[in-house]
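> tool_call: predict_assembly(chains=three)
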Amino acid sequence: MIQALSGQLLLGLINGSFYALLSLGLAIIFGLLDVVNFAHGAQYMLGAFLAWMGLSYLGIGYWWALLLSPLVVGATGLVIERVFLRRLQGLDNLYGLLLTFGLALIIEGLFHHAFGNSGSPYPVPELLRGGFDLGFMYLPKYRAWVVVVSLAVSLGSWFVIEKTRLGAYLRAGTENPKLLQAFGVNVPVMFMLTYGFGVALAAFAGVMAAPIYQVTPMMGSSLIMVVFAVVVIGGMGSILGSIVTGIGVGLVEGLTKFIWPEAASVVVFLLMAIVLLVRPAGLFGRQK
Amino acid sequence: MTGRARRVWSGQAIFVAWATVVAVGIVAPFVVYPVFAMNVLVMALFASAFNLLLGYSGLLSFGHAAFLGSAAYVTGWAAKSWHLPVLVSMGAGVAVATVLGLLFGVLALRRSGIYFAMITLGLAQVVYFLVVQMPWTGGEDGLQGIPRGTFLGIDLGNSFAMYYFTYAVFLAAFWLIQRTIHSPFGQVLRAIRENEPRAISLGYDVQRYKLLAFVISASLAGLAGSLKAVALQFATLGDVAWQRSGEVVLMTLLGGMGTVLGPSVGALLVVTMENYLSSLGSWVTVITGTVFVVMVMAFRRGLVGEIKALFARRS
Amino acid sequence: MKIRLAFAAALLLAAGTALAADPKVSDDVVKIGVLTDMTGYYSDLSGAGSLEAARMAAEDFGGKVLGKPIVVIGADHQLKADVASTVARKWFDEEKVDAIVDLVSSSTALAVMPVAAEKKRITLLSGPGTTAITGDKCTPYNFHWTYNNWALANGTGREVVKQGGTTWYFLTADYVFGKSLEEDTANVVKAAGGKVLGASRHPSPGTTDFSSFLLQAQASGAKIIGLANAGADTINAIKQANEFGITKKQNLAGLLVFISDINSLGLPTAKGMYLTTAFYWDRDDASRKWSKRFFDKMKKMPTMVQAGVYSAVTHYLKAIQASGTDAPDAVAAKMRETPVNDFFATNGRIGPDGLHRHDMYLVQVKDPSESKYPWDYYKIAKVIPAAEAFPPVSDKCPLVKK
């Protein structure tokens, strides 16, 4: 029993750190730009697909994909911000949500048309094959890698945004863009880069996921709602909140899968409703 | 425009809206397929109910599928297993949606904005889960073969009879929504939407007004669900899923939120796309996405909203 | 000039009334509507491929039956029952569709069947699996062509137990079809002397990580992990079972697996798995010949659902030819009394419940080293004869009692 439980908790931790990575970009985009980025799932899918396409058509391996895929997808993010989102600034964030939802549909529809639905396998990189026998369970090396990298990237991003001068500018830009502009900072470009960065994080998570999950056009749309819930529970825009909550949700979900598997996908939403009722701005959010 | 002119204008607009709805509705089943027309009417009612909340109270619910779906299931079950008359079955569906609306409202209205939307989403997901778990709902097969029964001795099994029944219910509900919007209650709602602190300082119990609006919207959404179950003769998981909640937001915005006719026009567009483009396969997703983007970038007031603005500029 | 025109018009009119008086083919066209999943979870195993298969069947028939053109149209039901039934009604009433083919999920099938029965039109189902179709929901105009859940459960369950897989643990989609697949298989396993050690019901859709369910399956010590789910769920479960080294000691048995799933998983991951199928392209010359033609058009080998669509449409057209009319009652009767013999089925018979009973195949997925050419995926482990492969005629079906 304890053996089984520790196995489930470890899996919860793995999934949780992955949720953290995926929700991080969403939290940054919302926290700094006030955009509810519904295209996040599609951008995550794009990341995974680019890795797969790179491998199948150009022979570009996992390690390069880990770097290139986020850069390419991030660049498309810059374009989206410049062409679309910038024109919606100052409007109700509902419009940003609808726009990104529309973009997600377009991206997913095009990929579905080109690649069908069942998707393609992506091999685990040579270096990370095999696993460790922990006694209570077998831990694939790749999953351990996911935990380490997710946590490192998440905490790194948090540090940059919350503790450095660059981050201070970013936060100031949200609070008072005009003032910051007056200080000689190019706020529009900064916003563009921020969105690009958030999107690149989604693509990064996509590459990380490619060897574990099947690479399909719909892989993002099934995760996006959970990730949204994570961000809301953490407190929209709170970066630390989304990291901690990501892991927490992973654990809670893992336990539910063990105790009452049928409820595994609803527990997140229940948790969200309860947290919002008890703590209005989420666990780590600041009440405005 | 002076206040008086505006009142005349709005009176005219209402007349035009009614004339359009009535005329289009009567002719519809002769032009398009009756079941398709019923589907449009049901979704138009659903979107209008939703608009009452979003357009006139400024509350974005992301869980309205729960009301539509649960009412559809309850109505279907009542008609199918208890063989209740059609109006009673529908009444049962509406009653359940109303109770659910009260529950959602009491909980969710403690928060506002995006948090309000997320609580309604969370609760709606719980309802979805319950529907999947309960044995009588038939899981992903749904409730199938719901009998339409008779109304005032008329056999609703006939598509035309069913259509005009649906249409009559729709008109009644549409009228009710209209009345609500233009009643003093509706005025207070708009006042709250525009400036909540002012409404509070004027002595209105804002929470109660919002709750009442939420419950009315939920029961009307339930009415749409009940009607859907009877008209299409089944209730399926698609009606309780969050995608349905998203669809109604789309319909409302597409047609123009806060306009009387907008949601119905939006529903017409969305249902038409769903049915008439269905031979295009994955391109439908791409087209829908493009419509979203174009709407948000160029026609933010929605179709009806833009047309209204055009007329307002001229006069 | 005027006179000649009038004369021509009169001639045309006469020809028109002559045709209208001939009741052989309604509306002078045999129209077949392929209503399938073009965009959702099952679009690869049916979708555009099913539409193409139906088109091929019409072409191979010469494009005409009883001298009237055969027209094939297609639409996406998006796996939504309301869309399916609205399209079906529109097709029947406005587009004069005579038969609807495929319908990939049980909810869409169960929504369209009563509409078709009410309008007296034929339904040829290839995609859905629920036994209710030929059980209590059966209709006189419906044909369930390719497979049903009972056949899958029975084929895989019994054979795997025979081969030594005596203890089972199920990963089940928490849905009616998953649960009924689990229940059917569990019964078969028990009847064959095996034991069921447990089951995990996972939400579907909405589960992407199966590791925790797999861990529970592993802890149960069962020899066989039965996957009572479909599509993306099955694919992810198989993939992760490999990742966690579970397939080293335990074997997987997929209860609803299509060749498109194996193709997207790749042999290194899927190897060794048992599954039951109604069709394998590389079974004999006839199946190979047709499948290669299909491949030339779709760049994919056909799944059993797509091959079933071709077979069903052809049988339908032959029945029209043989009975000299497209009147549904006559055609349905002719279809029931004629055995099915083509590349898909050998001596298949259609029961009074509308179920097409034919041989099924228990296959094992090849090891990459055994696979000699593209799509060389299966070894046929056993041919399950029609009588064993499908359930006896169900007394739940009201048509049977008569």
